[in-house]
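Quick one: structure for this chain?
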Amino acid sequence: MCVFEYQMNLKFTTFIILLFNLAAFSQDAELTATVSKNKLGVNQRLRVEFAINKQGADHFKAPNFKNFKIVGGPSQSVSQSWINGKSSFTQSYTYIIKPLRKGEFNLPSASIQFNGKTLKSKPVKIIVTDPVAIPKNPNDPDYIAEQNIHLVAEVSKAKPYVGEGIYVEYRLYFSNNVGIYDNAVTESPQYIGFWNQEIKGNGSQVKTATYNGEQYRYAVLHKALLIPTKSGKLTIDPMKMDILVAVPTGRADFFGNAITRRVRKEYSSARKTVFAKELPTENKPESFTGAVGDFTYALTSSKNVLKANESSTLKLSVAGKGNLKLFELPKIETPKELEVYQPERKEKVRITSSGLKGSITDNYTVVPEFKGKYKIPKTEFSYFNPKEKKYYTISTEDLFVDVTEGKELPVDTSNTPVQKQNVTITGKDFRFIQTSTTLATQSNTNFFKSIPFYILLLLPLISIPIAIFIGKKKDERNADIIGNKSRKADKLAKKYLAEANKQLGNKEEFYEALERALHNYLKAKLRVETSDISREKISELLRDKNINDSTISDFIEVLKSCDFARYTPFTDVQMNSEFEKAKQVIIQLDKQL
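Got it. Here's what it folds into:
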């Protein structure tokens, strides 16, 4: 009996050991990279550790520490443990590095050989700031707040084509060690060289994620669709925020609750760089007008058979995903016998993180005048697909309009020869000519004593003083140079702000139209593309034109308000105030220019 029990215990123990070994071997081999901190000053140091969880790996190859200097290491260590029936193995390689300059960098992947395969670690993002004052006390609130909160800008694609949509997302990462009581955007990002539009989300929901090997909570503050409008190196300026942070002091109250201290800190995301690629010139169709994406194209008619003076609608439509608002639709050509009105543009476009989606349609109203059958020639539409890196051309079919009732088309008889005909006498070619006249008696009414006579007589006498009065008023108006300038400037301001005035009450559309009006005004006056330059450059250009500083300051303030409106709620009263302010700014600028 004892021998039997001993054998059973031995088998059970062997079975458990086998299970633990299988559990250990079932884990996939992985090379991981962790850092002591992911944000540091240019005067600080950083510890980087590369670790593999399997025994037997060799030929470790460190990454190229570009932008960093190795000041310690590599130091190698091996650890193996058995805790609660679970075994673990770690072989690590540790480096101490120091940044050479500030910026946002990626530590490249390290590699190691295991069972004939090459394992690589994931790149690690490091943000290097200006030199920081390293506190003697590691519990310093400012130091803790700086190390536990990160404002990060993520770009979906670093090398898009011109016209290809990408997005930028601004995330605020904060660890469980700190709390956030208040935050405000002090400087919104600038997208110079991009067409941009905010992507609306579902609010700032707090989520959890791993950021550079550490567990954080984060909230998406802002997300925008960007479409490069020119090639080359394009820069996205930082977003800056002012945040009230609650940090632990290392002390507890009477009940054991941690005592926190609130500090206000300014955070800034790193400047991002995007390299926009030119569209290829090889195989570029002649009908290409800048469409980039994936589209369908169609030309249809509401009626193919109709009567004269009855209208038909030609619908020219482009649908799909891409830069829908940044290219021209083809123009249709119709026979001169068909009266065609200017097309009515209809847009059904929504903004997503993957780009613009929807359709753009031009509706042409066609009214035939004469009976007949008319051909509307086919059209072509070309676009560039950035995923497949090639051009596509879509052609429509010829359309025919059959007018069944109406006037016949006039025949051109200018080149028809005249045929000579013989004169035919019908007997009625001559008529009796009247040789006597019967006179009727006229009325005795005298015009010279009538009311119309006196009105016509006095009209010149009345007109002379009226003309003199109007002339004097006109001279006074022409002499009023300041008044004329004011009236001209007021008229010009209303012209540029007409679209913004229509959108009052719709926050997004109003501030887009307001910002566009200000840029269009400067473009017309200064003959420069102001949407592609910074506010500082705009201020410099206006100073060169001898515009006073207060007017320049007001102009820049209105531009800033257009940016801040995307992140903060604005009321109708504020919109009206901004509209009047923009109007006065344009009037003042026009007077001085």
